[in-house]
Amino acid sequence: MALGVSKKEKIDGLADTAGVSLAASAWKRLKRSPVFLIGATIIGIFVVLSVLAPWLAPHDPADKMLIEQVVKARNEIPPAQPGHLLGGDLQGRDFFSRLLVGSQQTLIVGVGATLIGLTGGLILGTLAGAIGGWVDSIVMRLVDVMLSLPSLLLAFSIAAMFARPSQFTVILAVAIVQIPVFARLLRGSMLAQRHSDHVLAATALGVKKGAIVFRHMLPNSLSPVIVQSTLVLATAIIEAAALSFLGLGNPDDRIPEWGQMLGDVQNVFDTHPHLAAWPAVCIIIVALGFTLMGETLREALDPKNRR
Amino acid sequence: MLRYTIRRLVQLVGVVLVLSLLLFAWMRSLPGGPVSALLGERATPESREALTKQLGLDQPIFVQYFKFLGRAASGDFGVSTGVQPGDSALDIFLQRFPATIELSFFAIVIAIAVGVPLGYLAAKRRGGWFDNFSVIGSLIGVAVPVFFLAYVLKDVASDALGLPSFGRQGDIDATRVTGFFTLDGLLTGEFDATLDALEHLILPAIALATIPFAVIFRITRAAVLDVLDEDFVRTAESKGLTAPVIRRRHVLRNSMLPVVTTIGLQTGALLSGAVLTEKVFVIPGVGQALAIGFERRDYPVLLLLIIMATIVYVVVNLLVDLSYALIDPRIRTR
Questions:
Q1: Contact B135 A148 (CB under 8 A)
Q2: Which distant-in-sequence residues (6+ apart) come within 8 Å of B262 by Cβ?
Q3: How far is A196 from chain B (nearest CA, A)?
Q4: B273 and A144 in contact by Cβ < 8 A?
């Protein structure tokens, strides 16, 4: 996809590719891609907000300070009022503060799930691709079984395994689903490099096998992994919301997370739509930001686009 | 071709066996386990022990697994504890399967009918506002949580369009033949029943279609872009062939292979999305049973439905692989 990288820019890029590393030329093109900049800006703001959220939030997100304004019988919740920009939620907690602090847990879910999935996939993929033989067979059969289950369904099943769901089990369920995807990606790129010239040269120079794998093969496999990670950051956040929606999410809502906020208000969707709409819009914007970054990265890192 | 099909089917049996073993071990390793599920937490130790013996849970796990396989071979997958307590898991699956197939079918038809032409047009107008607009639109489509969109359609669009906000339930007075609401009406001549069923299906199908639509759109666009650059398209143009002929015979046919693969892979998204969509629209399908099963931890039903979902997913992808030969004659000769 030519997301914001025009043909003219590609032609301009032709002249200066000689002697420039893939990363450097990719960065050069990314800097000029408006789509990448939009994605990066969204994510930049999101990360800054989530780090500073505890200081920026006007109230404690767990404090039921407006509880006397909640009338269960008449289905009333605190409306917007001075000091409470978006009113309160079903338990009389300041909704704006919850939304703001929610960004932090959302970032933790996204990054945590991606890191665990990436690490698992890195280990399995490197083992399979670098050692080969029966290790490869076993790992890839395991990957096949995991991939033969629809991914979200697998995440649901894993989440249902835990007797006491928590933020960590949500992260784990979303992460495990990503392991086979990363593993297959890395194995493929390892296999492709096994007989390539730079590996052959290193072997001929007597470089140890471990060093070849970690210094020569792994760094060359990283660009598809980086792209995939960026995209997984988006899906992890969306899938965590789906888990909460099915009652498989973190039941402890003192420290809010957007997916949990969205999933937990399903029964009042028709009466208080804003309680769902705000976290949903936040999730959509952040997921879109990660996706825009991922797609433009994919394009920029694709050697075909260098030519 | 036949050998290839057989090999894939044997692989499927292997996958199902491994998966059933994993799921079985998972069910048995759960805290409490089926005894607590059936007797409740406050049962006496004596009654627990008796039931443990009766269910054969005191035997080694592999013995239990083989017994389970034996029972499964005769269609006995256990009794539901949460979805429809007391009903056999297999009956629950069979009752609910048609509704999910129907929903998924309409969703994928919508996704293809909108995604492929849109992808083609976007590729033809590469870089134009139509292209950029639809690419961004498809990216937003992926970013929206399916169940949120389903709620928006249910609460907002159903009012605006005068469409029912719930799925068709089983207890209607139309004659049932196949279990498919839309098909039954056509078969028995009760066309108003078919129309009614379609009205109930349209909003959930649109909600479920968003993810496959976005993916199909992007793959079509990328595939058409690749093909448009090919020499044979330029040759066809220079031969003086008309635009519709080039589009049909040269561009679309050659760009369909990745699109068909994607459609197969989207079955997975449909099955997972059905869990969320059916829950929102209260459609009595397999997805709803899974959603309730997860909530109430109904393990016999979950085990069967997850295995069935896997079989459907793998078989659809096998059919997709086989269909390559129909699209691309070069694959036939291999």
A1: no
A2: B215, B216, B219
A3: 27
A4: no
B33: chain A residues, CB-CB within 8 Å: none
Which residues fall within 8 angstroms of residue A127, CB to CB, at 6 or more apart?
A135, A136, A139
Residue A198 DSSP code:
H
End-to-end CA distance of chain B: 9
Say which CATH superfamily domain B96-288 falls into.
Answer: MetI-like (1.10.3720.10)
The answer to whether the CB of A213 falls within 8 A of the CB of A152 is: no
Residues of B in contact with A163 (CB under 8 A): 30-32
A108 and A90 Cβ atoms separated by less than 8 Å: no
Angle at B222 (CA atoms; ends B217, B223), nearest 5 degrees: 100
Evaluate whether A66 touches A28 at the Cβ level (below 8 Å): no
Looking at the 3D structure of chain A, how many domains does it have?
1
* A296 chain-B contacts, CB cut-off 8 A: none
Instruction: Quote the minimal CA–CA distance from A283 to chain B in Å.
Output: 8
Cα(A304)–Cα(A176) distance, integer angstroms: 31
Domain of A143, CATH number, reads 1.10.3720.10
pLDDT along chain B (334 residues), means of 10: 80 83 75 61 74 72 81 81 81 88 92 92 87 88 89 82 70 64 71 77 91 90 86 83 80 82 84 89 89 81 88 85 75 55
Provide the terminal-to-terminal Cα distance of chain A, rounded to the nearest Å.
Answer: 16
* Residue A269 belongs to a domain: yes
pLDDT digits (tens, 9 = 90+) for A150-160: 888 889 888 88
pLDDT band at A164 (very low <50, low <70, confident <90, very high): confident
Residues of A within 8 A of B144 (CB-CB) are: 280, 284
Contact residues, B window 259-288, toward A, CB-based 8 Å cutoff: 267-269, 271-273, 275-276, 279-280
Q: Which whole number is the average pLDDT over A279-304?
A: 87
Contact B272 A152 (CB under 8 A): yes
ipTM over 0.90: no
Residue A105 belongs to some domain of the structure: yes
From chain B, the residues in CB contact with A2 under 8 A are 126-127, 225
Distances (CA, A) of A211 to A22, A133, A193: 22, 20, 14
Of B140, B221, B222, the CB nearest to A284: B140
**Contact indicator for A42, A288 with CB cutoff of 8 Å:** yes
Chain B residue nearest residue A294, CA to CA:
B139
- A273 lies in some domain: yes
The answer as to whether A7 is a domain residue is no
42-81 in B: which are within 8 Å (CB) of A? Answer: none
Half-sphere exposure in the Cβ direction for B122 (13 Å, CA)? 26
pTM assigned to the model: 0.84
The one-letter amino acid code at B252 reads: L
Domain ranges of chain B: 96-288
Domain of A159, in residue numbers: 25-305
Please count the residue pairs, one from chain A and one from chain B, whose beta carbons lie less than 8 angstroms apart. 124
CB-based contacts of A213-219 (< 8 A; 24+ apart in sequence) = A213/A126, A213/A130, A217/A129, A217/A130, A217/A190, A217/A193, A218/A126
